[in-house]
């Protein structure tokens, strides 16, 4: 049987976009699932839905937006993304424009919800009042940025065909996306610095630097942001010439957008991965972990290891109500720990009674 035409050619790059988009989406989906399962707790008896917090639902919404964006890009591929625009009929070009229009809006929604989930995580770390105000201010900035971006993108082309991004009736695309991505990068860097400053005050030893490294990794989001802006400028460079081919030149933009969007989701989930939580667990109070970070203590296991005790607050020398505590008060066991763990004596007595029977 004769082999068919090559799947990917210089004049048919759509499959490359599809493969990249869905690989990125699956990886981010695994990260989101791991975070949610960690919050639910892997109890031997039942799953605790009550452990899910607002940031978990926002992150799930972000993943849903990412799914919609990925589907929209696949619709673009079906309509001709990666193929020369000269070979596409008008109805397919219009389908390409509408799918791209939806993908742009869903891209902003995904980024916003991922950022808000990260900000809520910062609030769960019980920062000082000054840092709380900064976190809330950052949430407000993110919301204003997203709303402004959505409004401009929604009306980027002349009404009523606001989706006609290949026409000459649209605003300057490189200028639009330079503003959007500049604010995207600035808010991510701000969140990274804020999380690192909060974690620096945690009562941890070596584990503190592990968490600092995890949060500092968010700085790397700037790299795909820069590449995305560069590819947008390249795709729009020949707009005024007869050789302009948006459906072919947008290929790299679609790929880097998928990478950027899903990396943002992954970086939001990384602090919740179970191996990291097990490493950090001794430095947190059980109630802080269950309520804020989300690691559920397993029945019959204690968080006290190597002489370390669960602390009353994750912030050094400060209780949850803002009162200063003496160093000795800081090592009291919390009520949540007493309720959710069993002492070694109870386990020993239970085992002895079974042997006597």
From TrEMBL:
Spans annotated as Disordered: 316-357
Keyword ATP-binding applies: no
TM annotation in the entry: 19-37, 105-125, 137-155, 209-233, 253-273
Domain Rhodopsin: 45-278
Ranges of compositional bias, category Basic and acidic residues: 321-357
Entry-linked Pfam families: Fung_rhodopsin
Alphabetically ordered keywords of this record: Membrane, Transmembrane, Transmembrane helix
Protein name as annotated: Rhodopsin domain-containing protein
UniProt organism field: Sporormia fimetaria CBS 119925
